[in-house]
């Protein structure tokens, strides 16, 4: 009696098994491409965030990000601008003091 591994190897040696293997490899490649794309997107977002932090610092403000960890919260992943001298919000959109996207932050910093 052949083991499951031997049966699988025999199947993969058949034309039908080769087609199945190619299909699986294509799915893995697509998954890998998507993960690489997401990683590059996240890195680009962080670079932009750091650039806006420096821009805010030059104007005497601090860029702060919401510390919420609940993705369903209204201020999750949003930002605000704080005046460190008065410790008050210089620019925000939500009731919690955050609520601004990076686009909103950039707009606020370039309008000043």
Please explain how this structure is put together.
- The chain has one domain.
- The longest helix has 44 residues.
- 12% of the residues are buried.
- The chain is elongated and about 75 Å long.
- The chain has three helices and three strands; from the N terminus they run H-H-E-E-E-H.
- It is mainly α.
- The chain has a three-stranded antiparallel beta sheet with strand order 1-2-3.
List keywords for this structure.
12% strand, 57% helix, mainly alpha, 3 helices, 112 residues, 3-stranded antiparallel sheet
- How many domain modules? 1
> SSE string, helix = H, strand = E?
HHEEEH
Class of secondary structure makeup: mainly alpha
Give the % helix.
55-70%
Counted beta strands: 3
Shape category = elongated
Please give the radius of gyration in angstroms: 25 Å
Share in β-strands: 5-15%
The count of helical stretches stands at 3
Distance between the termini: 78 Å
